[in-house]
Structure formats: structure tokens, C-alpha cells
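Reminder to self: C-alpha cells first, then the designed residues, so the page reads top to bottom the way the pipeline ran.
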């Protein structure tokens, strides 16, 4: 993610970009040799919670620092890192906020994608447990409630079989992933899981296991 931020911003602004983590270590940079170095300018930003300009005179007294402007990166109100632009601070000031805003939007998008993926995995695991369970236990009901799923809601069970023999394993998995993405859009509120019919006794047995989920 840090290097993605660097690459995207450096395509727009002709200056080196550094991204530092919450400990002040460079984790992304246009100058890859600097990755892993401690950036004392970032430590100032992290400790003071503000934008820090560094000119040549100050840079000479700090470790791993060149002149430039360093801004705090915030996610949900918390400082999670620092983004630095190398060059004359005064000339970079007009770009600093824009670069910082772009980086924060990328971080927020990444966080949301992670949450969506996590929610999708938990929903899929719930479906697998519902298939294997003989009845809805209190634990399964609580799990469903935490995910905002009403197990008493009437549902229709559908089983889609993809022939991996004809498509090949990789193509079949790609096909299944596309189907899952299409079926799990938020407005549909579907419960979807990918299961192996081979391991579960074939299509007929799979249908028998899924049937109790519909009501």
C-alpha cells in the first residue's frame, strides 16, 4: 500500500515521496534505498501531531532527513503514519495537502475493502456451519445476529455447479469467484458459500444438505 501511494502521487507531482509508518520508519519511497530507514522528521510529526517543514539547515541536524514537508496521515481521526515530500518546503506546500488527502483516501478505501472481505469470509463460514449443523444452535444464531443476518427470514436455496473437468481448476475457481461476487452485492443480502461437491458426496447430497436452509 505504501509503495502504491508513492507510485500514484509521483505520477502527478514531480518530486520524491516518502511514506513512514507510525514508528517513523520509511515503508514506501521513490528512492527505494531509503526504505527501512528511520526518518526523524516523521518522528517530529508523530510526536507533535502537525505538519513539519524541514529546510536544509534543519535537515543537516536530523538523521535520515532531507529538506521538504512532512504531513500526518490520519485514519478515523488517528495518526497512522506520515507522508513526506522532498524539496523546497515553500514550493511544496500547495501540493502537500492534496497528496495527503489522496493518501488518506487510499488508506480508507483499503480499510473498507478489508472489512468487506472479512465480512464476506465470516458470512461464508456461517453458511458452511449452517449446512453442517442439524439445527440452529444459540451460537449460530448469535453469530448471524452479529453479521446482521436474520436466520428466520424466508429464503430460497439455489445450488450452482461449475464443471471443473471441462474448464480446468483455475478457470473454474475464477468462474466461481465471479458468481460469488455477483451474488453477494450488498443490496441482495444473499448468503453464498463455495463448497466442494466431491467432498460432500456429489450434487444430490449437496442439495439435501442445503435444503434445510430454505424456509
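Designed residues (215 positions):
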Amino acid at each position: 500500500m505504501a509503495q502504491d501511494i508513492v507510485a500514484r502521487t509521483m505520477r502527478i507531482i514531480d518530486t520524491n515521496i516518502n511514506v513512514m509508518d507510525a514508528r517513523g520508519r520509511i515503508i514506501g519511497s521513490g528512492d527505494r534505498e531509503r526504505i527501512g530507514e528511520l526518518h526523524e522528521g516523521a518522528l517530529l510529526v508523530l510526536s507533535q501531531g502537525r505538519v513539519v517543514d524541514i529546510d536544509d539547515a534543519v535537515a543537516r541536524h536530523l538523521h535520515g532527513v532531507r529538506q521538504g514537508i512532512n504531513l500526518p496521515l490520519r485514519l478515523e481521526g488517528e495518526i497512522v503514519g506520515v507522508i513526506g515530500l522532498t524539496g523546497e518546503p515553500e514550493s511544496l506546500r500547495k501540493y502537500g495537502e492534496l497528496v495527503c488527502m489522496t493518501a488518506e483516501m487510499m488508506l480508507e478505501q483499503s480499510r473498507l475493502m478489508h472489512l468487506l472481505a472479512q465480512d464476506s469470509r465470516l458470512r461464508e463460514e456461517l453458511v458452511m456451519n449452517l449446512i453442517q449443523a442439524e439445527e440452529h444452535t444459540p451460537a449460530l444464531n448469535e453469530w448471524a445476529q452479529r453479521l446482521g443476518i436474520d436466520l428466520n427470514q424466508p429464503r430460497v436455496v439455489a445450488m450452482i455447479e461449475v464443471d471443473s473437468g471441462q474448464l480446468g481448476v483455475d478457470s473454474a475457481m475464477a468462474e466461481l469467484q465471479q458468481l460469488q461476487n455477483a451474488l453477494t452485492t450488498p443490496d441482495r443480502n444473499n448468503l453464498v458459500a463455495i463448497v466442494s461437491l466431491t467432498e460432500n458426496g456429489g450434487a444430490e447430497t449437496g442439495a439435501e444438505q442445503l435444503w434445510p436452509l430454505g424456509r
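Residues 115-213 form one domain.
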